[in-house]
Amino acid sequence: MKHGVKFSLIALALASTGFAAQAEDSVVVEQSGNNNTANYNSLGGNAAEMIQRGNDNTIATGQFTGSGNTAGIGQLGDHNSVSLNETSTTTGSGSDYFLIQFGAEGVDQAQGQQMNIDIDGGNNDVTAYQFAGDGMNADGSAGTGNQLNVQATGEGNVLTSSQSGDTNLIDINSGSLNTNVIGVTQAGDNNTLDMNEVTNIGGSEFEVSQGGNNNLADFSDVARIDGSSMAVFQEGQGNQTNFTSIADVNDSRITADQVGDGNTINFSEVTGVDSSTLEAYQQGNSNTVNFASATNLTDSVVTAEQMGNSNSISGSLSGLNNTTVTSFQGSEEDAEPSTNNQVTFAIRDASNSEFATEQLGKDNTIDVDIISADEVTYNLTQDGEGNRIDYASSWFSSNIDLTVDQTGKTNVTYVYADGRDTTVDMIQTGESNRGVVRSSASGSDLDTVQNGGFNNLDLLIGGDDMTARLVQLGYRNTLTGDDGSLSVSGSGHTLDLVQNGDDNVHTSDVAGNGNTLDTWQLGDENQLTSSQSGDGLIAYGYQIGDSNELSVTQTGENNESYVLQIGTDNSAIVTQAGFGNFADVSQGGIGNSATISQMKP
Known about the structure:
Elements lengths: L1 H15 L8 E8 L4 E6 L3 E8 L4 E7 L5 E7 L4 E4 L11 E7 L11 E7 L4 E7 L15 E9 L2 E7 L4 E4 L3 E3 L2 E7 L4 E11 L2 E7 L4 E11 L2 E7 L4 E11 L2 E7 L4 E11 L2 E7 L4 E11 L2 E7 L4 E10 L2 E7 L11 E19 L4 E7 L2 E10 L4 E8 L2 E10 L4 E6 L5 E7 L4 E6 L5 E9 L2 E6 L5 E9 L2 E3 L5 E3 L5 E9 L2 E7 L4 E9 L2 E9 L2 E9 L2 E9 L2 E9 L2 E9 L2 E9 L2 E7 L2
Parallel strand pairs: 1-3, 2-4, 3-5, 4-6, 5-7, 6-8, 7-9, 8-10, 9-11, 10-12, 10-13, 11-14, 12-15, 13-15, 14-16, 15-17, 16-18, 17-19, 18-20, 19-21, 20-22, 21-23, 22-24, 23-25, 24-26, 25-27, 26-27, 27-28, 27-29, 28-30, 29-31, 30-32, 31-33, 32-34, 33-35, 34-36, 35-37, 36-38, 36-39, 37-40, ...
């Protein structure tokens, strides 16, 4: 009875699509039993209905020439085969084909159904369905599953294919495709879509949907994509989407979207991307997005977004021009904050491009290296606790603009920069945060702000002609370096240091020529220690508050030091050695003391 119902469904499906309608010539073939064969040829404007019931049956169509052909083909059973244009190609256009296979249900059933579709021509409409059982052998191992093989060229064709069951395969291997629409749906586990060696794709759409676990959508050796879209959606666990060896992409969009845990999206060896978009979206835990060896991207957008925990986004990009790369990791609305996510990127040979990463949650990590780049802006944002930016670096680069924004507690940022004309803006808001800056980029600007308590700024500056503005607002913040002091080397630097709060500590060591150190401390029990060596140095020290201490040491020539303390129990010690030194100390309040030593030969 069950098979009778399915047989009726086949007839109903064929009739509903118009294949039962009278045309110039009409053929109806029905076969029951096993090992049957049916062949059909049409010269145009004809209609055919072919139904087989049983196992190991074959339906093969020969030449379809002309236009306006319709064919409805249905098979009920196992190990059956349908070939559309197996031995020849369609030279006409405007034909409709409906293919459907029903496999038996249960263990050791629904094995080895096969469809082969070969279409050459235009404006053809092909619909192919394969319905199967669980695709398992009697011993519980995965069976061979159903197979759908597609060879398609021409323009204006529409292919809609669907498979249900497990361990099924859809293989698309085509040459030139223009203004074609291909839709693929697979429902079940361990299914595969394989699209390879496809070239000259223009104005076409590819949509793939896979529901189940451990499915694979694999696109490889696809070239010359123009004005087209490729989209993959997967829902389940352990699924994978690969875009490998994709070349010459223009004005197109490639998207992968996954829902579930343990899924993977790979963009590998994607090159020659112009005015296009590469997108990856994942919702779930322990998922991975990887942009590996993506090269020569111009006027394009690369986007990755993950919602969940223990996810990873990574990439190695080079040859970027006027391209934007963005990544986001967080959690769904009203969900617990995401944790243990990671973003790692290496970007080489980029110009006039933007990079941005945002993480919401805790215990997340960002590691970004910008190498041999010019005119690149990158913004790194973290909101939560225990997050790390490890590292944000630019090497052998110029005109780099880096912004770091961390909000929360116990966050850490490491910034490394060399080259020239780099701008670094770092903001940390919260408590017990640490900022580490190592910069040897000459002619650069550094702005850091820490707002909160128990924060630490560790600064080492080299190169020449750098301007640094360092601000700490709050209480018990420290401004130090590798060896316990802020370390500056090089010439022509200007440093403005501001600490506003209680119990703050500032220690600096400045070496070089023509450097200026301007320091403000406002609050209680602040300490400032400064040491300078070189020629033409100038140091300003200001403290407003209670129980402050200031110590300035300068060694060299043409040094100047101005000290102003307003408060109670302040102490200033200034030591200068060399030629042409000048010290001006003003103290106001009670219990202040000043010790000045100048050694001028």
